[in-house]
Design goal:
The protein is α/β, with parallel strands linked by helices. It has a domain of about 120 residues: 3-Layer(aba) Sandwich (Rossmann fold). Helix content is about 40%, strand content about 25%. It has nine helices and ten strands. It has a six-stranded mixed β-sheet with strand order 6-7-8-3-9-10, sandwiched between helices. It has a four-stranded antiparallel β-sheet with strand order 2-1-4-5, with helices on one face. It is globular, with a radius of gyration of 17 Å. It starts with a strand and ends in a 5-residue tail after the last helix. The structure holds adenosine-5'-triphosphate. The site of adenosine-5'-triphosphate has 11 residues, from strand 2 and helix 1.
Length: about 240
């Protein structure tokens, strides 16, 4: 679905990603893990067009979209959910859902909101609440629901379980699985909760210092000696 070729990117002159090659397969969950500061978030931002790309290609549906700006990528059904500020705080839950579907016609928006509320029934009772007053978990449900309203094909999630209780984190992981299995979404996930994230994933990448240190099926990563050491905190890699 998305093929990343020899990607070099960063912020201004500060290069963060070095020669990254990756394949994000259609209808699968791909998780990026790695130590703090290894460039995981920068990778997602780069795919969405929010950093400076020095060289390399991002192939999506046979086209190089490396230079396509974020608003056009959104129209190409690529959704990016940053860690924070992923909803409009001053608008209600309902307004957020409606705004997510602004490019669709009215009937279609209604239909998509219904679909989103079926996946996130937790939102049904809080439709009139301002998004800024929601708990972390509710906000995450809303942000993911908005991506469903938009009918996104690719969903890039930056640490969706950050600061959530283990129980709520588990609910988010279940929703991610549901979005893959029931809607065929292609999901790219960055997670601190590396072990659990890989357990629900098909494929994985381990980033170290802005480079792909190793890659494989999620199972291969989970069983990789280096990954075991890293997740046990024995080595910083
Ligand atoms: N807007 C920015 N401008 C300049 N440097 C930045 C910016 N955002 C991130 N960086 C730097 O890029 C490097 C990689 O950060 P990034 O957030 O991509 O790592 P990460 O692997 O997602 O880390 P974490 O797990 O801590 O979120 C860090 O050194 C960080 O300080």
């Amino acid at each position: 679905m998305i093929k990343v070729k020899n990607l070099n990117a960063g912020y201004g002159k500060l290069q963060i990603l070095f020669d990254v090659n990756a394949k994000i397969e259609k209808g699968k969950i791909t998780t990026v893990v790695g130590p703090n500061g290894s460039g995981k978030s920068t990778f997602l931002k780069t795919l969405f067009g929010l950093t400076k790309i020095y060289s390399g290609e991002i192939i999506f549906k046979d086209k190089d979209i490396a230079k396509v700006p974020p608003h056009k990528k959104a129209r190409m059904k690529i959704a990016y959910l940053p860690q924070t500020n992923n909803v409009f705080a001053n608008l209600t839950v309902e307004e957020n859902l409606k705004i997510a579907g602004y490019v669709l016609n009215k009937d279609k928006v209604k239909e998509r909101i219904e679909i989103a509320l079926n996946v996130f029934p937790e939102l049904k009772d809080i439709l009139k609440r301002k998004a800024g007053t929601l708990s972390g978990g509710q906000r995450q449900f809303l942000a993911m629901g908005m991506a469903l309203v938009r009918d996104a094909e690719v969903l890039m999630l930056d640490e969706p379980t950050a600061q959530l209780s283990p129980k709520l984190a588990e609910v988010i992981f279940e929703k991610i699985i549901e979005m893959r299995d029931n809607f065929g979404l292609t999901i790219l996930l960055v997670e601190q909760n590396a072990k659990r994230a890989l357990e629900i994933s098909d494929n994985g990448y381990m980033f170290v210092s802005g480079r792909v240190a190793f890659e494989g099926t999620a199972e291969e990563l989970l069983n990789h000696e280096k990954f075991k050491e890293y997740s046990l905190g024995i080595t910083a890699i």
